[in-house]
């Protein structure tokens, strides 16, 4: 119930100009939320870093922004402020190295 309320509040604050497929419209769903869920236990620091990278890069992957830092809701901003990532993080995603220097 808690997550449902958090997601509903977040969704209501988003602009209503996104393209939503008919199947989602019929169920009153927004395009921002993934329908399926897969549980994954984080194995180690490298696994955690890769999952965080995935989350930070996801808005670019889906075409919402050009650079990860452009997404205003990202935890990447705090990561950069703490010196754990460069301010241009994500520029090297295509060369096989993630934002934490892990291949």
What do these coordinates show?
The chain is mostly helical. It folds into two domains: 1-38, no CATH class; 40-103, Transposase IS200-like (Alpha-Beta Plaits), CATH 3.30.70.1290. Helix content is 39%, strand content 0%. The protein is built from four helices and no strands.
Distance between the termini: 38 Å
Q: Round the mean pLDDT to the nearest integer and report it.
A: 82
Number of helices: 4
Query: In percent, how much strand structure appears in the residues?
Result: under 5%
CATH superfamily of the largest domain: Transposase IS200-like
Low-confidence parts: 92-103
Number of domains: 2
Helix amount: 25-40%
CATH architecture of the largest domain: 2-Layer Sandwich
Shape: globular
Determine and state the CATH class of the largest domain. Answer: Alpha Beta
Number of strands: 0
Largest sheet: none
Based on the model shown, name its key terms.
mainly alpha; 2 domains; 39% helix; 103 residues
Blueprint (SSEs and pairs):
Blueprint: H1 2-13, H2 22-26, H3 45-61, H4 76-81
Quick summary:
The protein has helices at 2-13, 22-26, 45-61, 76-81. It is mainly α.
